[in-house]
């Protein structure tokens, strides 16, 4: 079984990532700093040893090499001949053999290096080949060498520098990790509050909202978007509950009537005409079927995924649909050139047909349908010369199952869902349908975005 070592918490992930990156960066910086300090110390020692060695050579007199008397930390000085014999030395280097065995050549008289041995540990040395003039005067041309050095400083010899650098790297990494942990925790604190509040929200109570932190960062935008989504969800659930209540009420009456008729036919077979009962039951079931079909259409418009829209010329559509209305009140059309929108042809035909049939039902002598362009929108109007609709009822008629008295009288078998379906379709096309003032009758106005408008429709 493979274990997942990746932390589940975003805070822990960022902290771990920050620690890894910080350790790598600080380790490189520490190694560079360590190397720079070590090189600087070594160079300083080389400069001192070279200076002390040359000063000692300069103090010699003809025929005699004066033994050195160190006055600095460079306390190891030796003069060695070509047979590795120590000719002169400082007190600290007098009781041991040559400090080193390497010999600078003629073309490179001064060399620096580190010599490690079991007797004196590691030494930082400068080896100088005595110039030919002094060699000739003092030793008849026999090569001699001067060694000047000192023991490695404790900071280098005991690896104290590496230990201090490593401790600094670890401390800086820990500080960076803690800062990341604190900063990410502070940043994600509103997220934890949003999560806790979201866990308290249930379908039975959608009135709660998540806390919105100040500012305009991504978390604040998330909180505001979540509250807007909750508000839409609450409105949709309330609408669904109201719709379910209305549907149950509208279906209960015909179902109860059908049940009563069938029950009477069974209880009083001699008093009830079965043919009449069957006809009445059939009429009731037809009404129920019409209501159910309209409900399915309405539900499909609200919940089905959007279909690909197509360009539709509403002017041509109005003219074509008007020609098919050969029965009922005459329909007169007026169009002004192409009026092209994006939408679902079948649904828009349904909207136009529903509005025209509704106008024919209430008109006295004529129904007028127009299609035009206005301010980036296609405008379709359906006007009748009937009694009209009172301003207080102009919004109510678009609610499911709302039917005015005149509508019930003219169409007793209607479901009361036609105008609700029209509004749902037009809304899905990012348009509006309203009832506006008219000199006579009712005037339904549909507005849809033209092709090229900023808001593209997404019909179901």
Automatic annotation (TrEMBL):
* GO function term, MF aspect, one: phosphorelay sensor kinase activity
Stated name of the protein? histidine kinase
Instruction: Give me the reactions it catalyses.
Output: ATP + protein L-histidine = ADP + protein N-phospho-L-histidine
Q: What class of enzyme is it?
A: transferase
**CDD domains from the xrefs?**
HAMP, HisKA
Which organism does this sequence originate in? Planotetraspora thailandica
Gene3D superfamilies per record = 1.10.287.130, 6.10.340.10, Histidine kinase-like ATPase, C-terminal domain (3.30.565.10)
Q: Where is the Histidine kinase domain?
A: 246-452
**SMART domains attached to this UniProt entry:** HAMP (SM00304), HATPase_c (SM00387), HisKA (SM00388)
Subcellular location per UniProt equals: Cell membrane
Q: Boundaries of each HAMP domain copy?
A: 185-238
* Transmembrane segment boundaries: 12-38, 163-184
Please give an example of a GO cellular component term from this record.
plasma membrane
The EC number on file is 2.7.13.3
Superkingdom field: Bacteria
- Please state the protein's primary subcellular location: membrane
